């Protein structure tokens, strides 16, 4: 069975950074991801707040980070971790995947998150038929067409701007009276003349073979209104992937996120967590910082 000093589960920005730092410390390390490296970061259409780049897409930055990571550690993409078993040996953990099994002294959980759903009628029925959670994946198909973007955070406004640039006729819908996104993004929405509907929730997504409209509820008057649209893009937050954390006995907070200390340690010895699976700010640069901290702290654990 292959043995490693550190196994990092998840190859998003945090996991890749942890791999870079761990490898440069002289340890033997493995990153495993059930998908392609980058996670949800691959979907970011454009970033203007990542240090060192005026503008860069998530996919472009992922590829740069991946190239750097594989110089410093092993990377296994498209391999799903099914179980982690704690042992009393020097290699404290056995990691079982759908392809192989590995042993490790340290585990870093970088399992990330997935798109939160609206959980309304028609959402599942029209997934891939007008309902999407990824503007960079599907936006091209909606050039020149009417779409609604649901959400009020940074991601929702970034994707609304991206879709608008593709030539889609975008309407931004948010359940509150004001957006939660950065002022810069809100100013851009106004500058581009993107239509907004505030204090409204999507109650149903309707259509025949494809999406044709959304049913909106005015949260102030309870009035219902049907809005024609060819597509519904949803960006209303994320659900942390904590199956493996729960399996290991890691403590979670009320929202289901992993609780960590300033060294990224969980309540389980030699188990760390970083990125979107943890409590804290959901930002690319934060995940990278946490990856560096976790890898450095893990190295100190190995040395002791």
TrEMBL record:
It holds the Pfam family Pyr_redox_2. It comes from the Archaea. Keywords: Disulfide bond, FAD, Flavoprotein, Oxidoreductase, Redox-active center. The keyword Disulfide bond applies. Residues 4-291 form the FAD/NAD(P)-binding domain. GO terms for molecular function: oxidoreductase activity, acting on a sulfur group of donors, NAD(P) as acceptor. This is Thioredoxin reductase (NADPH). It comes from Methanobrevibacter gottschalkii DSM 11977.
